[in-house]
Design a protein that fits this description.
- The complex is a heterodimer of chains A (494) and B (219).
- Chain A is α/β, with parallel strands linked by helices.
- Helix content of chain A is 43%, strand content 16%.
- In chain A, strand 6 and strand 7 form a beta hairpin.
- The longest helix of chain A is centred in the C-terminal third of the chain and has 26 residues, at 407-432.
- The longest helix of chain B is centred in the C-terminal third of the chain and has 17 residues, at 169-185.
- Chain B is globular.
- The chains are: A alpha/beta (494), B alpha+beta (219).
């Protein structure tokens, strides 16, 4: 039905037209143009306004017909619903293959709107155009620096592809991207999904060289069988993380059979996700954690996890968090224990979690990290307790004694050490191709902390807690197991 | 509207897909019942069997731990007397009492959005309260069946349990795959209940079965 040209017109347009640009800063037609012009879009921008008044210093055309032929691929529609068939015809006539329709007054507004929406889809099909929406918040495409949406924010560029049945959750995901630095390739809210839905977007992301993971918010699914088989085909190509609204709404059904009453809508959906290889998250924050892990870390080849922590408690809770996952807190092999014995004072935990018990000298932590991450019997490593020295450094830097009493030197030393630990851990991850996850609440509390900043500067994700890192890693491992089930290397043991 | 097939007919159909059941006898009179009882060397369970009997335990149509012809024929008389015309009773099913502490539930259910699904969970009288249940879309791959088993929270039930051996997971997975097969070939299928599936000497065996269809296939 849709070709790659349609999606390229949508996400990589050579030029864009804002239909219905407005001088009123509270209107969609102002905000959309503002965001496109402000975020550095690389193509040509046109705008239409009935009175042809200047908007944001940009001259406008009286209609889309005024746009030269073949210079723009996408029209962003903010005009009233009743004008939009004319807008689409003119856009098609000027060579545009894609439209994003922000206008409301369609299927969401009752029977008359529903009819208008059906007519719009019919017209788009006839014109061979892809239309997204109506009643959608817009789209983002970082490879062309495009922020064609009526909401903030514009995220850093990266490889997460977002598709949502609710525009607000696109914003939530983009906010998390902006905060963490783990970037986005494309993001789109499908609004009323009149012609295309989330699954169509995912199919494009699976083919899109800029996108490595799909991140989805869903409320409802029609045509379940077709959705499931299309989703499976996408999951064979890229990981998909999905959060679904309405999980609790439908409880037990009246049924003659016990199984009928046990097979609630949510359990059916959950089983479908597991079967087709999609990672189902329980919240928006968890969904972003998992997507960020997929986007920034290699997959573990097996379930064997090592936890390295500079001091006690964190490791204990992280170990507890693995209990309900498919990860295995591996017993440390003898040769690794011997290596660590040589590096650490005798009070180290001598087991997994590997608790350094504060026994590190200048070069201990890097040596331990390298030995653990690179060991053949460990598939993934979780690193905890990073940044605590720099956190003390911050208190000292902000206190009344700084920079005297040797404080300037020691604070700089702590920050260098924290950065170095992170750099060593991430370099080891890269060189052996295994996931290394760093977790600290400082990711939220003090994003400028040297350890957190080093993770972010490396383009990786600092998890806000060990538990959240464990859950994300569980989904990485689950996907590997699922992918392997299609090959002959599969065993029920993983 | 839908209708249910009798327990004996449901079991006959599901046996053909490889689902394990106990050896049973369907009797239609008290005399047949006492004659059949002699051939059992274990305590006997007796259940009224008919096309439209869905919730036997709730209606008191099950008698357990019967021993000897007199016991059995008396129980059968009570069950025949309890039958209502709409039950379309076809007789009483006599089966050996199965010894197993662990009970699971499995079956299929027709979802409005996703079509036929396979359901598996912890069984027994507390099944719905415990709600340790997992669902997949039919058809299942062997991977899905094993993933269903490992999805339950109560994993300790599959290990050796109070003197009983560990559960034969391959057989359990085969039952789930057989249910999946049944969704593809039983005409007009709405749902299947295998409730309970008991673990007898480590092997799963379905003690009860119920097939629900939209209408009977006329031959």
């Amino acid at each position: 039905m849709f070709s790659i040209e349609h999606f390229n017109a949508l996400f990589n347009p050579r030029g864009i037209v804002v239909a219905g640009a407005s001088t009123h800063p509270g209107k969609f037609g102002f905000v959309a143009l503002h965001n496109i012009l402000s975020c550095g879009y690389r193509g040509q921008v046109y705008a239409t306004n009935r009175e042809q008044v200047e908007v944001l210093g940009q001259s406008t055309l009286s209609s889309v017909s005024g746009v030269p032929s073949g210079v723009a691929d996408l029209v962003f529609v903010c005009t009233p619903a009743t004008s939009n068939s004319e807008v689409l015809r003119q856009a098609a006539d000027r060579g545009m293959r894609a439209a994003f329709i922000a206008s409301a007054g369609y299927g969401e507004s009752g029977e008359a709107g529903r009819r208008l929406q059906d007519e719009l889809v019919e017209l788009a099909d006839e014109l061979d155009m892809i239309i997204v929406g109506p009643n959608g918040q817009g789209l983002v495409s970082t490879p062309v620096s495009l922020c064609a949406q009526i909401v903030a924010p514009y995220p850093p560029s990266g490889s997460i592809g977002i598709a949502s049945q609710s525009g607000n959750f696109v914003s939530s995901f983009l906010n998390l991207s902006r905060q963490s630095g783990v970037g986005v390739s494309r993001a789109i809210s499908v609004g009323n999904a009149a012609q295309v839905g989330v699954i169509d977007m995912l199919e494009f992301y699976a083919q899109d060289p800029s996108t490595s993971v799909g991140l989805v918010y869903l409320e409802g699914v029609a045509e379940g069988r077709s959705f499931a088989s299309r989703l499976e085909a996408v999951c064979r190509q890229i990981p998909v993380v999905l959060v679904k609204g309405g999980a609790s709404s439908s409880g037990a059904k009246a049924a003659a059979s016990h199984t009928g009453s046990l097979a609630t809508d949510d359990r059916v959906f959950d089983g479908m996700c597991r079967q087709v290889g999609a990672a189902r998250a329980r919240s928006v924050a968890e969904a972003f954690d998992i997507a960020a892990a997929f986007a920034t870390m290699p997959a573990p080849v097996g379930p064997r996890l090592a936890i390295v922590t500079t001091v006690g408690g964190w490791g204990v809770l992280a170990a507890d968090a693995t209990a309900e996952t498919n990860l295995e807190l591996v017993d440390l092999p003898m040769d690794l224990r011997t290596t660590l014995d040589e590096l650490l004072p005798p009070r180290w935990s001598r087991g997994n979690p590997i608790d350094l018990a504060g026994g590190e000298t200048k070069d201990t932590v890097p040596a331990v990290l390298q030995a653990v991450i690179g060991h053949r019997s460990i598939d993934a490593t979780l690193v905890l307790g990073m940044g605590i020295q720099s956190n003390q450094g911050r208190l000292e830097r902000e206190g009344p004694f700084f920079p005297g009493h040797g404080l300037e030197r020691i604070v700089a030393f702590h920050e260098r050490q924290d950065s170095r630990y992170i750099d060593v851990a991430l370099a080891a991850s890269e060189s052996v191709g295994k996931p290394v996850l760093v977790a600290s609440e400082l990711a939220l509390c003090d994003p400028d902390n040297a350890a957190v900043a080093s993770v972010r500067n490396a383009g990786k994700y600092c998890f806000p807690s060990a538990e959240r890192a464990v859950i994300a890693l569980h989904h990485l491992a689950t996907r590997q197991k699922w992918l392997r089930s299609f090959t002959n290397q599969y065993s029920a043991e993983f | 509207m839908s209708l249910t097939l009798s327990e004996s007919e449901s079991k006959a159909i599901l046996s053909s897909f490889g689902i394990p059941f106990l050896p049973e006898v369907l009797v239609t009179t008290e005399e047949e019942a006492s004659a059949a009882a002699i051939r059992f060397d274990t305590p006997i369970a007796a259940k009224l069997c008919g096309d439209n009997i869905a919730h036997k335990s709730e209606r008191g149509l099950v008698r357990l731990n019967l021993s000897g012809p007199e016991d059995v024929s008396a129980a059968c008389k009570e069950l025949f007397d309890a039958a209502r015309p709409e039950d379309q009773s076809t007789g009483v099913l006599l089966a050996p009492m199965a010894k197993g502490l662990r009970e699971f539930i499995a079956g299929t259910s027709l979802d409005q959005v996703f079509g036929h699904t396979v359901v598996f969970g912890i069984g027994g009288v507390l099944a719905e309260a415990i709600a340790d249940v997992t669902v997949r879309l039919a058809p299942l791959r062997s991977y899905d069946a094993h993933d269903m088993i490992s999805s339950l929270r109560a994993q300790s039930l599959f290990a050796p349990f109070r003197g009983e051996p560990e559960v034969d997971l391959e057989s359990l997975a085969s039952i789930l795959c057989a249910l999946s097969d049944a969704t593809e070939s039983v005409p007009n299928l709405v749902s299947i209940d295998l409730n309970p599936i008991a673990i007898v000497d480590g092997s799963p065996v379905a003690l009860d079965a119920l097939i629900e269809v939209t209408r009977r296939e006329e031959l």
